Every structure is written in C-alpha cells, then in structure tokens.
Amino acid sequence: MVPVWSVSMFVASFVAEDSAVVAIEVSADGHHELVTESYKEYNNPAACRVLLRERGGLFSRQAYVWHDEVCPQHVSFTGATTISLTEPGSGKPKVTTFDADRMQVARIHRTYGIR
After folding, report:
1. Beta strand pairing call for 32-41 and 47-54
2. What backbone torsions phi and psi does residue 48 show, to the nearest 5 degrees?
C-alpha cells in the first residue's frame, strides 16, 4: 500500500507553478495593489498576469487585470478605481476601471487562457 502523501507529492510535482513578482503598485489610498507576476507552469510556456488585490489581510480578495504571454511595460492606478496598463512595444496605455466593493475589473486584457 502506498501512503497518500507520496502520491500527493508525485502529482504536485507535475502541476507545480514557478512564479516571481515583477512589480507591485499600491493605490493612493493604500487599500489595493496591482501585482505583476511572471510565472511558468509545468509543460506550458511562460506567461504574465497582473492581479488587483485588496490589502486588507487574511481574507482579502483578488481579480485578474492582465493575462498574457508578456508583461505590460507599466501598470499604475490613475484614479481611485482606474487602472492604466501600457502594452509592450505600443507605448499606448489601456485604461480599465474596477468596482472595489464587488472586486471586479471592467475589462480584463487576455490573450492567454486563464486557468
């Protein structure tokens, strides 16, 4: 009989994710942050995601803002509920808004499938 923990370790090695924080931008009021992460999952190409996170502690929520093969050049808060993302190579910022109460982003930039 094989112990359950050994099977779990074997399965986890195939679905493990390797990620690194590229940048963090904090909102002016300090309640939210934009976290840019570069990550690689087993057997998939490297990708980038930007997450909008609450900074409220243990039960804070998060939402996707960006999910693509490359990271944006620049990410920032341009207002209380407005986010600006500059696409790589274009220099033109894209603007989206979010609902802080429901923690939803109006428009998510994605060309890479969200898991």
Report:
1. antiparallel
2. -135, 145
pLDDT of residue 109: 83
Cβ-based burial of 83 (10 A; exposed 0-12, middle 13-18, buried ≥19): buried
Mean pLDDT per 10-residue segment, the chain (115 residues) = 62 67 95 94 85 93 93 94 91 92 90 57
| E strand residue ranges, the chain | 17-26, 32-41, 47-54, 62-68, 74-77, 82-86, 93-99, 104-105, 109-110
Query: Which residue carries 């990410």 as its tokens?
Result: 75
Q: What is the pLDDT of residue 10?
A: 61
Whole-number pLDDT of residue 91: 82
List the beta bridge partners of residue 86: 74, 93
CA distances, 4 to each of 11, 12, 13, 17, 70 (Å)? 11, 12, 15, 21, 38
Q: What was the pLDDT predicted at 54? A: 96
